[in-house]
Structure formats: structure tokens, C-alpha cells
Amino acid sequence: MTVKMAQRRIHLIGICGTGMGSLAGLLVEAGHDVRGSDESVYPPISTMLERQGIRLMSGYRAANLDWGPELIVVGNIATRTNPEAEEAVRKSLPYLSFPQAVEEFFLRDRHSVVIAGTHGKTTTSAIMAWVLREAGRDPSWLVGGVLRGQELSFHLGKGEHFVIEGDEYESAYFDKGSKFLHYRPRTALLTSVEFDHAEMFKDLEAVKQAFAAFLALLPEDGTLVYCADDSLVRSLSQACRARRVDYGVKEKAIWVGRTRKATPQGILFDVFRGNERFASYSSPLTGNHNLQNILAVTAAGFHLGLQPEEIGKGLASFPGVRRRQEIRGVERGVTVVDDFAHHPTAVRGTIAALAEQFAGNRLWAVFEPRTNTTRRAIFQSEYAEAFDQADEVIVAAVDHPERAPQGDRFSAEGLVDDLKHRGLSARYVPDVGAIVDTVARESRDGDVVLIMSNGSFGGIHQRLLDALGANGRA
């Protein structure tokens, strides 16, 4: 379905998703009249949209289309029976999936820089966009997270580059292919490949096929920047016809990073290209997983024509992404950190990064199983090995366990038992209020509390900070 590029009235179903919210902002910047609806309207995306003057409607109703939209963009949260999706069909309104809309409106005439991978794509996309921005290239970008300080997850620039997070998840109920298959990659960054999204992919082989199809989109004169530390990435990259450039912190690669010093303020590190030192840089980010992300951007930036000092300027000033190792506050000497980690690899990497950043401090890891994959028992045993560097572990109740198939449901209590068998101090505390009370009562000056969830987790971050502050005044 082709969309004319004239200014239009556009309605987004599922507008508060990170990708959909970013698309809404881009469409407004391009001059379109945009409104949208969502089942749950909540910050930070809702706040970002309201600042753009976008009207938000809470709940899905056929009447939400009475304002006369000319085009409907259907987020992948919507099913065929969504009242607004049904109303769009009844009214014969044209509709697109989110990635189809991005492609039609923004990618046809730009150099698309697509960041894909099971892990790290949000942070890597944000760094890539920021480095190009600080180098004066004025890129457009669409990232699945809100940049701190900027409070935006998108920008419509005048430069040739469009940086976009390439998600492997399905596009819409009528567009079952992965989102990144619509993004016309000319430069691609591939960070990692693991099994995830169990409700969409049957097995690891299906995941590999999706990423292989993405890499096949790269033209011969394009560039693939890929992580040599990941064996599946190395294997998949071999069939890519574009120029291949690898990076790593463990395996031998063209681009290699070595951390020289880690502090609560970030890391100092060296980057080598071939056998020669390319530059020494600093970053407010910590952990090997973030060093990998930085290396990907450094290599891609070089091949996009940036000078070493231009890359370094962006890396040093990068503000970070909300919900990625984000320090939400410090009360009574206790630092509360928010992170999106949910896959066992991400949980392990985030805990390791915080253990390095706050070496010598007691580290709490509070985990809510919330995604479609974490509700299932697929990674039950893998999670048991992901918390080893935490000093205290609290596992919350599984969010909506009924959404996982009977007989294939994750057991939070089972995880706690496994952690105890590994010698860790762990407990199952199902209620958010009880978690807040426990941590506020037992934490001490210097502790770091890492809260991991891909949702709001009952507002636990502010509730904990409030409880810590109240205890300090008592």
C-alpha cells in the first residue's frame, strides 16, 4: 500500500508504544495532524507526546476514529478484533503497520542506518544518533527509548542519515514479518542473536532465519558492522554480500575495545583498529555489553566518514537512555537504578556492569518477570545463573502468568530456590508494596538497588525512594 506524502490526518492505534510514540512525533515534525489511542496512557512516552501537542485517547473505541483520519497506523499491540482496527476496515480507511509507515514516510530518500540484535539495540541506536548529531550531521532518528535530558526518542533532521532501531518482532496482525525487513538498511549494526520472543518464534532457527533475511537486504556497497564476540552473529554475517566489519572485547576483530578504568562516573577505554590504537575515549556508560555497543558505533561512525575526535565527542557527552542503567535517585545513601533488562543475558550483563561501576557496594537485584518470554519456562535454568554477582536478590510475582501456556509457565519461586542452591541470598516477594518495605527496612548507606522490569512495576522506583526518604526522616 503506497501513501502519498501530502500532509495528512493520521491516527495511531497503540500510540504509547516506544516505537509508535516516536513515529507519532516524527509525523508531527513532518507537518501531519496526528492523534492516537492506547489501552494504557502513561509516561514517559505519554509525556513526550503531550509536549508535541498530540491528543491521546485512553482505551480503544470505534468512536476514536470519528475525528476523520485519512490514514490509520496499526501498532502490533492491536489484534484483528481491536475496535478501531475493525472500524478502519468498516470505513475502508487505508492502514499501514508501524514499520510500513516509517518506510513510506521517512526512509526512501535517506541513508538508513539500522541497529539490530537481541540485546543492546536501543542503547546502540541512541549512541549512534547522538554521535552523528554531535558531529553536526543532523541525522533523523527513531529509537526505542527516551534519551535523558532530551526527553525525546526521535528527531527529523536535515542530514542524509536516518538512524533506526531494527526490531525483529512482528510488524502487525496483517504484516507478520519482522519490523526490520521494512527499513532499507544501507549500514547495519548487528549486536547479538539469541532466542527471544517465544510467542512469535518457534525456536532459535526461526530467529536466525529472520536475521538472515534482514542481512540479505544490505546492498553490495553497504556496510555490516557485527559483533565478533557472538558466535551466531559471526556465522550469520558470512552470507552477507555487503562490506563486513567486526568488533569485539573478547574475540579477535578489526575493532577491539579495552577498558582501562571503571568508576561510578563511567569508563575510560582504548579502541584499536587492526593492530593500531585508534583512540582513547571516555563514556558515562559501564560494563562490557556497553563497551561492545560503543565499539559498534565507533566502527560504523568511521565508515560513515566521522573523524576519531568527532566520535569521541559524542561518546563522552552521551546522556544515556531512560530505563537503561538509569539512576532514578539517591535517598538515605541508597542508589536506586532502573533497567529494562528481562532476558537472562541482559540481566547478567546489567548486574555485571553495576557490580563494576559500584565496586565494593552491596548490590540488590529486584526482578519482575513480565515479558511474553519471561512468563514462560524457557529460560528457567538460565535465569538461575544470571544473578551471581548480586548480593541480595528479590524476585517478584510473574506479571499476568495466565498469558503463558499451561504447563510452560515460569516459576518465580523455583528461581529463588535455584538461586539459594547456588549460595545466593534470594527471596520471593510477590507484592510491590512488600518489596518496597523490605528494601527500605534492610538497605543501608552505600547500597545500590537495581530494579529490572520492562514495565512500570507498580511505580516501584519512586515508591522506594519515597519510603527511603521517609525512613531517613523518622
Any overview of this molecule?
With 474 residues, the protein is of the alpha/beta class. The protein has three domains: 9-100, NAD(P)-binding Rossmann-like Domain (Rossmann fold); 109-317, 3-Layer(aba) Sandwich (UDP-N-acetylmuramoyl-L-alanine:D-glutamate ligase); 326-473, Alpha-Beta Complex (Protein-Tyrosine Phosphatase, Chain A). Helices cover 32% and strands 26% of the residues. The protein has helices at 18-29, 45-51, 83-90, 98-107, 121-134, 204-215, 231-237, 288-303, 308-317, 344-357, 380-384, 412-421, 432-442, 460-473, and strands spanning 9-13, 33-38, 55-58, 71-74, 95-97, 111-116, 140-147, 152-155, 161-166, 170-172, 175-178, 187-190, 223-227, 243-248, 255-263, 266-273, 276-283, 326-331, 334-339, 363-367, 392-395, 425-428, 448-452. The strands form four sheets. A ten-stranded mixed β-sheet has the order 8-7-9-6-12-13-14-15-16-17, with helices on both faces. Strands 18-19-23-20-21-22 form a six-stranded mixed β-sheet, sandwiched between helices. The protein has a five-stranded parallel β-sheet with strand order 3-2-1-4-5, with helices on both faces. Helix 1 (18-29) packs parallel to helix 2. The longest helix has 16 residues, at 288-303. The radius of gyration is 22 Å and the shape is globular.
